[in-house]
Every structure is written in structure tokens, then in C-alpha cells.
Amino acid sequence: MLRVLARILFVIAVPALLVTGWWLASDGSTDIYWPPLRTILKTFPDVWTGERLRADVLPSVTRLLAGYLSAAVVGVALGTVIGSYRRVRAVCEPVLEFLRAVPPPVLIPVIMLFAGIGDTMKIAVIASGCVWPILLNTVEGVRAVDSVMAETARSYGITGVARLRTVVLPSASPQIFAGLRQALSIGIILMVISEMFAASNGLGFTIVQFQRGFAIPDMWTGILVLGLLGFLLSVVFQLVERRVLGWYHGLRSTRRSS
What we know:
The protein has eleven helices and no strands. By secondary structure, the protein is mainly α.
């Protein structure tokens, strides 16, 4: 019980210190661009009503999930193929390194030419950025499959889909989830950036509209919503990760205690 309480206090200590510091630093501020935190918090419930949440937050989350899941499917599938075959990896590696070096926001005008300015463009931008950490981590995870396990599976005649399902993907899953975690933060950033281009709703669009209308406290509330959204998505991801990789975390705990 004491350990749980200590962990909870440890988790909330840094956010509490940051909020306290922000409150004290901004208290009494008369700068229009740096309103007091109390003013921002007072404005929050007036701005983010249920209607605005449905009109702006829900479309943003939908686009994020669509792009993120698309990138996950493509990244894991291609990463498994590339990581499994040395010749394929040798051919694809220069192309992958070139494409990975291109910042996804730079591709927005190009994607707009082919996908228009609707949700398809925004989903494509999110997917184009999220796919790389997933793909590259999957490649490394598949390459790092234990040779003893691979040879044992081969000696027992476990090949094809069965080998992929029982040996390759379970062994590579910790690395795959590391890529998925990195991609989630990238997806949130690209979600906001894509909504700043030719959009009519979404968090990015709304924050820019507040800024252009000099509704500065409202703009800061939008930034707070983005932070809360990122926090909630991170918590959900951790719950899924612990559920899927329960065997892996249990194995690590056993090794630490031994």
C-alpha cells in the first residue's frame, strides 16, 4: 500500500510543481500574450463545451486514430517482410533512409495535390510521419529474433504463418511497441499541423482561429486540451501495452528480482 501511494505521489509531483510554478509566474501578469493561469482556467469551461468537443476534438481524434492505425498496419507488415529477408533489406534500406529524412510537414503541399484538402489529406499526413518509427523498430525487432528459437522452430517444422505468429511477432513485439509509442507523439504533432492547412474544424484549426482573433486565453485553453489529450492517449497506450506485453514485463521483473 505504501509503495502504491509513493508511486502515485511520484507521478503527480512533477505536474503539480509545474502547475504551481506556472500559476506563480503568471500571477498578476498584464501581458495580453501571457495571461494568468487563473484566467485561462476560468475561460476553459466556457470555451470547451460539449458542442465544441464534438465539433473539434472528436474529428481530430478520429483523424489521428485513422492515420495512426494505418501507419501501424503498414509499418508492421513491411517491417516484418524487410526484417525477415536480408536481400529485401539490402535493396530497401537506402530508399528507407532517404524517405525517413524527409520531414512529413514538407509533404503536406504534395499530399494536398493528390488527396485534396479534406480528411484524406490529414490522415495521409499523419500516417506518413507515424509509419517510420513503427517500420524501423519492427525491422530491428524481427532481425533480433533469438537464433536458438528460430532454429528450434525450424527443426519442429514450424514455418510460414505459424512461425510468424508464434516466434517472430512475439519476439519482436517489445521493439514494435517501442515504435508505436514514438509514433503516437509524432501523430499528435502532425494532427495539429495538418489541421492548420485548409481545415474547417479540429484542434489545430481552432487554436489558430483563436490566435488570429486575439482570443489569447481561449488559445491557451486549446493548448491545455492538446496536453490533456496527449496524456489520456498515453495512459490508454500504456494499458494496452501492459496487457499485450504482460509476459515480457513479468519476465523482466523476474530477472530483476533474481
